[in-house]
Each structure stands twice: as structure tokens, then as C-alpha cells.
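WARN retry 2 of 3 for item q-0093 after timeout on previous attempt; input resubmitted unchanged.
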Amino acid sequence: MTHESFRKSGERIQSRTSMDTFAWIVTAAVLVFFVTEMISLVPRIEDGQTVTHHIFIVVLLFILLAYSYAVIPYGYAIEDGKLRILRPFMTKEIPLSSISKVTLVKRMPSLRVFGIGGLFGYYGYYWFPNRAFGFVLARNGKNLILIDSTVSRPILISPDDDRFLASLGNVTI
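OK item q-0093 returned
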């Protein structure tokens, strides 16, 4: 792990999270499809053809891209007695006092119930064996940490630096 991805300053402990290869491939494929759809609109508009379904696809893809980018975390921080899941919008906070168990997980849950599986990362409800539904807020499949809390469903995060796990305390491996 790089030392740049983990920072401890005063009361704030922070770790970045980066996309894995699969997330890069899915994101690139969706972006290529989006750009291709936009480029294909130009000659059709000039010829006066009906392009309603192409415009619908472009708008739908734009909404998908914007939402996916807004909810995927770019880092995690521990400060002021809270675990903060840092996202461009809607940062999620979990009080450290509500965390009952922290577990290192070897791999991503295989059953996505409702969420994103690769576009900028992994987000949404997944089925966790022996735990029912949980929430994934990760960008890669490395250093997966499952957090059981009294205030929310189980949450799976993926900090780049493995030292972040020890900072959460109450660790089960």
C-alpha cells in the first residue's frame, strides 16, 4: 500500500479508495457507449430524422453517469468520533460508538440486489451470506472491510490502505 493513500493528522485518519480493473473497464465501456450515442445524433439531426429514442438514451446515460459518480466514495475518514464515507455528494457518517464489529472480508459479495456493479465502483444493496442484506460503498475488491453497526445495515468499504482497518478498532479477521 502506498503511504500517500493513508494520512493521519491530529484527530483525522483518512484513506483514499481507487477503482479496480473491472470498474475501470465497465466505466470506460459505458463512457465509450455514451460518447458514441452522442456522436451518432449529429448526422441524424442534420438529416431531419426522428432521433427521440437516441436523445432518450443519451439523457438516461447522462443521469446514470451523474448519479453513479455522485454516490461512489473517493475516500474514508475517521474524525470527531465518526466514520465518514466521503463522496462527491451525500457524505455518509456512522458514529464510531455504534460500530459493533469490524471484519476483514476476502471478496466482494456475489449477489447484487439493487445497485451499481462496476460503474465508478460498487454501490448499493448486496446479499451478504449469513447477514442478509448489506450496503456496499466501495471502489475495488481489495481491503474489504465489513462494518456492523447498530444504526444501519452492514456496510462494506474498501480503503486503499490496510492500516485503516486497525484504526476502526474491534477488528475480527
